[in-house]
Amino acid sequence: MQLFSNGQMWRSHELKPSYDVAIVGAGVHGLATAYYLGRLFGIRKIALLDKGYLGYGASGRNTAILRSNYRTPEGVRFYNAALKLYEGLSAELEWNLMFSQCGHLTLGHTDTAVAGLRVRAETNQLLGVDSRIIGPDEIQKLVPHIDCSSAPRYPIMAALYHPPGGIIRHDAVVWGLARACDRMGIEIHTRTEVTGFRVSGRKVESVITNRGEVAADTVVNATAGWASTICKMAGVSMPIVSHPLQACVTEPLKPFLNAVIVSASLHVYVNQTGRGELVIGSEIDPYQSYSMKGTLPTLEQMASSALELFPQLHHIRVLRQWAGICDMTPDFAPIIGRCEELDNFQVDVGWGTYGFKAAPAAGRYLAEAIATGKTPDIIAPFAPDRFRRRQLVGEKAAAAVSH
To answer: What is the CATH superfamily name and number for domain 18-62+170-239+331-398?
Structure first.
């Protein structure tokens, strides 16, 4: 581990008067965009601006599940590209991201659910993604401790099995990208809150922060939770609503669960970390809020749903509970690219519950768009103007539960 004289893995800087690129949000998406701008295109006069500490927002408040078994062709191609980038990122960054491709199972408890999983499996296979339908016998072999009997309220009928899916250490991803950015001279400015923009005509001329004002040729909004708020400061409207997404972690147990388990009918997902903790998550809260606190009703729902799948866990204790903020779009797909209203204002927002999975691909291809002035085909379907053009990407079928 490289440490500087102050004991930090990346350096602190004074804000310069101007930069080639100013990125609002130093989470995994902002870091990935800066990393690929520097690594692939040699653009390194970059300021990453974040109001909190590194990993303060959604990058540190997620369950770090990776997969590419989506529903739409546009989504499958994009998230598969992200998964492929993740597979090589530890070696590229020279930093262990602790990526475990332990497999991902989406359970089907009804005929309708299984039919939907079959459609997803066929779409995945046509696009070269390893994904198939398996029955209860194979599920039981892969996950011996899951209840595949007829006793539960919603017996397991089948599952969409996605072997390349798995879990990664979210902190390691943030630290690895930050370390790589710092090595290239890219500046990370934490505790630097953006309070406004100076806009002239069709251009953002400068970013106003609590530490001063900086000019930039290109400005990127790569925030989660407050994406619409930041856009509004620039006079740009985004069709986004923000909801909390809650999860919890249990006390450590001996390893027994070597797969990510998701149940859309029960609105729950479960996986086990390398330290033995169970990570249990739910669907987004039904109300719009910026709250980052857990609630007792959601904890009760997560616990009861997890016990439907693993009744033997009734005695374990919950260590902590938290919530992250999810920016949801009308079609459950992200918004990436240059805004129609401003020529130099790019966005990487609206990720809902998919953001961490997408970070390398979003950063890689947004960096290409910034550097070349041309939108790569793989992110073109997610352009901000698709709502005006009525060309939505309906990804809700892959988001019946958050992961």
So the answer is: FAD/NAD(P)-binding domain (3.50.50.60)
Helix (H, G, I), strand (E, B) or coil at 361: helix
Q: Indicate where the chain has its CATH 3.50.50.60 domain(s).
A: 18-62+170-239+331-398
Are 251 and 317 in contact by the 8 Å Cβ rule? The answer is: yes
Query: Please, what is the Cα angle at 244 between 73 and 109, to 5 degrees?
Result: 55
Contact 295, 246 (CB under 8 A): yes
CATH of 100-166+242-328, one of 3.40.1050.10, 3.30.9.10, 3.40.50.170, 3.60.20.10: 3.30.9.10
Mean pLDDT of the chain: 93
**Both tokens assigned to 113:** 């659910």
Instruction: Note the pLDDT tens digit of each residue in 43-96.
Output: 999 999 999 998 888 888 888 899 999 999 999 999 999 999 999 999 999 999
Q: Closest Cα to residue 103, out of 161, 64, 170?
A: 161
Angle CA 347–19–211, to nearest 5 = 90
Q: What are phi and psi of 89, to 5 degrees?
A: -75, -35
Reported as a pLDDT band with limits 50, 70 and 90, residue 1 is very low
**What angle separates helix 170-183 from helix 28-41, to the nearest 10 degrees?**
40
Task: Say if residues 93 and 169 touch (Cβ distance below 8 Å).
Answer: no
Residue pointed to by tokens 């693993």: 310
Sequence-ordered list of residues with C-beta below 8 angstroms from that of 96, at least 6 positions apart, any chain = 90, 172
Is pTM, for the whole model, over 0.85? Answer: yes
Residues 6+ apart with CB under 8 A from 334: 348, 349, 350, 351, 352, 354, 355, 358, 362, 382
Strand locations in 153-238 (E): 158-162, 166-167, 187-189, 194-200, 203-209, 212-221
Quick check: helix, strand or coil at residue 294?
A: coil
Cα→Cα distances 387→50, 338, 349, Å = 29, 14, 14
Kindly state the percentage of the chain with pLDDT values over 70: 96
Q: Which of 376, 395, 371, 396 is nearest to 336 (CA)?
A: 376
